[in-house]
Prior knowledge:
The chain is of the alpha+beta class. Helix content is about 40%, strand content about 25%. The chain has helices at about 10-15, 15-25, 25-40, 45-60, 65-105, 110-140, 245-250, 255-260, 305-320, 325-330, 345-355; strands at about 145-150, 155-160, 165-170, 175, 185-195, 205-210, 215, 220-225, 230-240, 240-245, 265, 270-275, 280-285, 300-305, 320-325, 335, 355-360, 365-370. The strands form three sheets. Strands 1, 2, 3, 4, 5, 6, 7, 8, 9, 10, 11, 12 and 13 form a 13-stranded mixed beta sheet that branches. Strands 15-18-17 form a three-stranded mixed beta sheet, sandwiched between helices. Strands 14-16 form a two-stranded antiparallel sheet. Helix 4 packs across helix 5. It is globular. The model is unreliable at about 100-110 and about 110-135 (pLDDT under 50).
Amino acid sequence: MNQYQEYSLEDFVLDARFQNWVRYKRDADNTFWENYLIHNPAQAQEIARAQALLESVYVHYETHLDESEIDFEIQELLSKVRNEKETAFTAVSETKSLTSTWNIFSRSSVFWAAATVVMMLSLGWVYQRYRISDSNYERLTAGKPLHEEENETKTNKVITLSDGSKVTMFPHSKISFPEKFLVEKREVYLSGEASFEVSKDPKRPFLVYANELVTKVLGTSFTINAKDAALKTTVEVKEGKVSVFRQKDFTETKDQKVLKSKGMVLTANQKMVYERETTNMSKTIRDTPEVVDGDDAATFDFVNAPASQVLGDLEDAYQVDIIFDKDLLRGCPVTASLTRQSLFQKLDIICEVIEARYEMLDGQIIVYSKGCKN
Length: 374
């Protein structure tokens, strides 16, 4: 048992005995880890996070599937956790560095001269980014027999494509598309921001080219924000499922299995953020998740309902994976009226009632709880 006292989150996640406990919930493993937590309460938070991370992987897999595939998913999630820690550390370091620089130069004319130079360089960089971004759209559409629509108004503009799909163009956006789509695929090109309601056609995928990304769907509702010169491009799914690829991967990768591994799948109420500088794609939850299928009459009024049931109802309504210990929360009663609140407000209230907390990881919501004091 002593071997685990120096373990971090990553060590627990990669430990075979810990994995078996989370995955199979055998009595012997339950007893071992319950006793360990009693004697090592300082590690409770790391163990809870490691347990939730593994459960977020196992929830999608049956036990008979290839272990290497499951291991790959675990490594991918660990990589995301490491990146989040490194980003947080870098942000703190940069803040300290800027504070120190300000203290040194705040009263010096040299500082103001340098600041002016930096500002001029920044303006030139932004201008250059704008030219690059704008040429990307024009490069993709140049020489092709496409019809272009542009929204130069201050309100949204709705257009209907030849296949019945509807596009809501936000102000200062433009989109190019053929008058009639090809037999094998439907391609459109976007500069700016637009929402799509794509008509289902399994034989003809719908492809949206925007900045450095390609979004592929068969039929769903989603929004792409790909403004010129923006540092980030986002894809948000309202309902259904889409696949997002970097344009370079999409055009150069011929093997569909390899291409699939390079893309990112988004489902209802998930959001992808593409960082232009690093070409990194990360998955999270939409800023304002909505009940799927637009059931405005849905109510979330609970009286002494088990917390496991309440979280399960939210999971079904919003179609977002919520990872939690069902056995642990089955004995936690919740009495609350949650109809008018947003998803995150609902979660805040539930977690306050059952003395828990939640976080978002890789497009999923993970709820941590020690159980209820009944």
